[in-house]
Amino acid sequence: MFNRISQTLVILSISFALIGCANEDHTLRIGSKNFAESMILAEMIAQLAENEGITVERNIPFGDTQEIMEAAKQNVLDVYPEYNGTGLIFLGQAPISDGDESTSKVRELFEPLGLEWKDRFGFSNDYAIVMTSERAQELGVGSIGELANTGSPINFAVDEDFSTRAADGLRPMARRYGISVGNLAVFPGGSEGKDKIVLALLDGSADVAELFVTDGQIAEYNLVVLQDEQKFFPVYEPAPLVRTDALAKIPALDKLLNKLGGAISAADMQAMNKAVDLDAQTPASVAASFLVSKGLLPEDAAGSAVEKLLVAADPSVGRSSQTAKALRAIRAGFPGRDLEILNSADPLKALSEGESRLGMVGAESFYSIGDDGPVAKGSARAFAVLGYKTAHLIARKIGATSSIVDMKKIATGAEGTGSAIVLEMLLSSLGLLETVEIVRPEGNLNEQVTALVNGEFDGIFTMVPQGDRTIKNALENTAVNLVQLDEWFQGGHTARYSFIRPSTIAAETYPSQLLPVSSVSTQFVLASPVEKQQQMGEVGPGTVGVASAVPVSDEAVGLINEALKTGEVVDPAIPVHAALVPKIDVVDKTLPFSFDVSLINILMILFTVWVLYLCALPSPRDFNMPDKD
To answer: CA 220 to CA 222: how far, in whole Å?
Structure first.
């Protein structure tokens, strides 16, 4: 009887242990590739899982396609977003342009590998072979096949993954269409890589680039997507690729993944990609906001309310790869914070009054005009170099002056903007500030050029990076051109305003600009306010409406500069953040005082003197004993 009871207890103990093991929490290992879309989709899975009480291990990002697919096969990751077209290609299959057929095929092929394809997210993100509208029109190209008919090699800008893909990458595409590839610029994947790809298009170093159809840069920069007339590229519809054993271990996983099926449109995804790539929002906050908007997460879900970090910039600072890179670098110094640009005619004032935590400004913003030259404002310090802004003076070709000294009315930006400050400094130094009328017209640059041609003013002055697309578009009007600023290099003006540096706009930077144009440039930097005592009742830094100026920490300065990697130091004429001032270690060469050591030294010296004294004494006399009789 006793033995039976013992056996029953043992069996029950084992059963309860097994039940406990079955109910044991399993960590869900989530990965993504290293670009915005993949990270956003992976964050959606992670946040839905956490909302269900599932423990999550994030590997966002993990690596490229080959690495992450292998990690899923080898039980390193449980789930990540993958594309059906990519799945086919990486298993050596022919591309399929029908999404349903493609998904059915990958499900069949991946099942023996212990991997399951769940419902698709709802959009297709195919490769986009893109050009600027100007270059496409110049070459007469509207499709990929027409690139083979230009009569010259085509320069490409692509990411590393596309450059090496064996079935649906650059070289297979070139062979399929008979395209002669000229110079090839290959950039890392991710947001910064996309910046460089787009910049290569905009500055003309590349004729064609590779992006994805849901990339925000296509609409932002008005890029032309070339038609894939041979249907070379398969359809790329993303879906969660998940290990079968993970579905078994975490019963709630299947249901939560199905919540994302068909939930995301191409327009939704393009807006989210833009928020990360161009607006420097975090993938986590973008994912959370979307899930909350769709009712898939509660309003107070973690990550849905991320504190905003405000960055002041004047209205002339437009959207560009340079500003996008700057915002992402700032995020590196303030991890977990979303960024927001605060347009301000006087960014340094916004900094000093605590309206923003950082500023993107030119060197000119640190100074005001005094009777004898520039006067430092003293309200901010520069801590990172973003690049340079160059003066562009536009005038009519016919019926107008070709020199700034003969102009009577010049249009520029709002008071306090970099363009307005530099123009006033130039005119002040040239002795023209009292004779030239400065106007600040409404409307974009193209509208101002129309007013210029109609004779409403003599010139338009603006400070922007060389090759700026708004200048390119404006100079397509053949009635205007760029004016030389030769007068600035005479009479010691460069010495008075040393931070306004001589520069040259290279020939053919803009349409119909056949010769170099002499100009001036100022360094474009990130700025931090000087320390200011915070008043009682004030709250955290960067909060709208709070009058508190808090400098950027030394640690954040280091992280931001490491992310930027510009290779340039702040112009010596600009006041710099304390973190950039070289630290000099002064070695104290004086001997430290110690009473014990000093006493021992004194005793040793006295002992030495005593020994020397004994040595100096005369030798003792020899005493002879008297002889005995």
So the answer is: 6
Instruction: Give the CATH number for residue 196.
Output: 3.40.190.120
267-273, Cβ contacts within 8 angstroms, sequence gap of 24 or more: 268/123, 269/37, 269/40, 269/121, 269/123, 269/125, 269/214, 270/214, 270/215, 270/216, 270/218, 270/219, 271/216, 272/36, 272/37, 272/40, 273/36, 273/37, 273/40, 273/214, 273/215, 273/216
Mean pLDDT of 500-527: 92
pLDDT category at 502 given cuts 50, 70, 90 is very high
- Render pLDDT for 265-295 as a digit per residue (tens, 0 to 9): 999 999 999 888 888 788 998 999 999 999 9
Average pLDDT over residues 489-497: 82
Residue 1 lies in a domain: no
- Both tokens assigned to 394: 């536009």
Which residues are CB-contacts of 177 (< 8 A; sequence separation ≥ 6)?
144, 145, 147, 148, 230, 232
- For the CA atoms of the chain, what is the radius of gyration? 35
Contact predicate 363/576, CB 8 Å: no
Residue-wise DSSP of 497-564: TTTSEEEEE-TTSSTT--S-EEEEEEEEEEEEEPP-PPPTT--STT-TT-----PPPHHHHHHHHHHH
Nearest to 464 by CA among 444, 447, 479: 444
Q: Mind listing the pLDDT tens digit for each residue in 516-546?
A: 999 999 999 999 998 754 443 444 444 333 4
Q: Per the structure, how many domains does the chain have?
A: 3
Mean pLDDT of 172-200: 90
3-state helix, strand, coil in the chain (%, to 5): 40, 20, 40
Residue 138, number of CB atoms within 10 A of its CB: 12
| Residue recorded with tokens 């110049």 | 138
Residue 12: pLDDT band with limits 50, 70, 90: very low
131 & 272 share domain: no
Residues 397 and 267 grouped into a single domain? no
- Whether residue 582 is predicted with pLDDT greater than 90 in this model: the reply is no
pLDDT band at 17; cut points 50, 70, 90: very low
Structural domain contains residue 4 = no
Find the domain containing 480 and state its range: 309-580
For residue 252, pLDDT beyond 70: yes
Same domain, 195 and 284: no
Res. 21 pLDDT band, cuts 50 70 90: very low
Residue 345: partners with Cβ closer than 8 Å, 6 or more residues away: 314, 315, 414, 415, 416, 417
Pull the structure tokens for residue 13: 């103990």
Strand order in the sheet with 127-132: 181-187, 154-159, 208-212, 127-132, 223-225
Residues facing 438 on adjacent strands: 410
Largest CA distance in the chain: 150
Cβ 457 vs Cβ 409: under 8 Å: yes
Alpha-carbon span 223 to 210, nearest angstrom: 11
**pLDDT for residue 195:** 84
Task: Give 203: exposed, middle or buried? Use CB within 10 Å, 0-12, 13-18, 19+.
Answer: middle
In whole angstroms, give the CA distance from residue 258 to residue 101. 20
Last residue within a domain, chosen from 274, 306, 338: 306
Alpha-helix residue ranges (DSSP H) falling in 259-357 = 266-277, 283-293, 321-333, 347-352
